Amino acid sequence: MLSILNARGVEVFLLVLAVSIVIVALVVFVEQSQRRIPVQYAKRMVGRRTYGGTNTYIPIKVNMAGVVPVIFASSLLYIPALIAQFNQPQPGQEPAAWVTWISQYLTRGDHPLYMLIYFLLIIGFAYFYVAITFNPVDVADNMKKYGGFIPGIRAGRPTAEYLDYVLTRITLPGSIYLGLIALLPLVALATVGANQNFPFGGASILIIVGVGLETVKQIDAQLQQRHYEGLLR
């Protein structure tokens, strides 16, 4: 009997380890994914010097919002539960209908309605955060000021509209990815009975992977400053 329990424990451990590796690999892949919009700068003479004439790109990440939408959505979902907690009835009295509804649907993380609202809030906050952190009009104006343009796109307003078009469509898979990652602990709670400290999902894994990637980039930058090849090739 003890050997069977030990074997089952090893199987569960290996399963959790395999799932964690897959999730971390997917998170790293999406966090590193980006759409590179090519930009060309025309040559211009300033005195006797020639500036411009270079090719570069604008990197637009799939997940430009990071972990912020997940934090905003979880904080906003906590407000109804907090309000209901301060409106509990006196002993012997029936609670109000809206307090009962909130207690049934908006306080349990394993309820489908809670998951749906949480998922939609993450998508909405992802678009909101990207809209306030990346302004296509300013980017287009700066490109026009320094003689830059996107091949096939006129400088100025058409460039801003093109950037907004790309940004809107690339934010959709990024926001869905954030929502799915954030729902992993809730799905595990509803299906396999995991507790609230389920480690592989939500804001925790996004923060861990983000910090790890940023640390690797900083180490690589320091190595390149000292004329080494660096970690990232």
3D architecture notes:
The chain has 233 residues and is mainly α. It has a single domain (2-34, 62-225), classed as SecY subunit domain (Preprotein translocase SecY subunit), CATH 1.10.3370. 64% of the residues lie in helices and 10% in strands. It contains 7 helices and 5 strands. The protein has helices at 2-32, 68-85, 97-105, 112-133, 136-145, 157-191, 202-225; strands spanning 34-41, 44-46, 49-51, 55-61, 148-149. It has a 3-stranded antiparallel beta sheet with strand order 4-1-5. Strands 2-3 form a two-stranded antiparallel sheet. The protein starts with a helix and ends in an 8-residue tail after the last helix. The relative contact order is 0.13. The mean pLDDT is 79.
